[in-house]
Amino acid sequence: MKTRQLSLALLLIMIFCGQALAGGQQIMARMKARLPEITKLKAAGVIGETRDGYLFKLKKTAAADKIIKAENSDRRLVYTAIARQQGVTPELVGQRRALQIKQLARPGTWLQAQNGKWYQKK
Asked: Which of 38, 51, 72, 89 lies 20 to 30 Å (CA to CA) from residue 6?
């Protein structure tokens, strides 16, 4: 259920910024394709979500490096496009997205609190 909500939120963001973002459909497709693997890595406690709206590696594993780099790169593009439309900074968009992710995250997901400390959602 939460995966569907996260997917829906991701799709809504992409639709919102789709016209302003060159290649938006390709980015959306890449992010959607990565979602199952990201979900598995989160469930295993390998990666978490930062307070800035990006993925972060919590455990040493080469498998996570490539997916984190790709996902964070695409998130940066999306946040930048949304920021341009809203007249705010990409950092603010990322922080807002982090709050959404926190709400939608499954129990057990590692999240970064505003003070920088990591915790598992209950």
From this structure: 89
Task: Write down the residue that tokens 């016209």 correspond to.
Answer: 19
Counting the structural domains of the chain, the total is 1
Q: How far apart are CA 48 and CA 67, in angstroms?
A: 12
Domain range for residue 47? 2-120
At 49-66, the pLDDT tens digits run 999 999 999 998 888 999
Cβ atoms within 10 A of the Cβ of 40, count? 13
Whole-prediction pTM: 0.82
Helix axes 90-104, 2-17, angle to 10 degrees: 160
Looking at residue 105, what DSSP letter applies? P
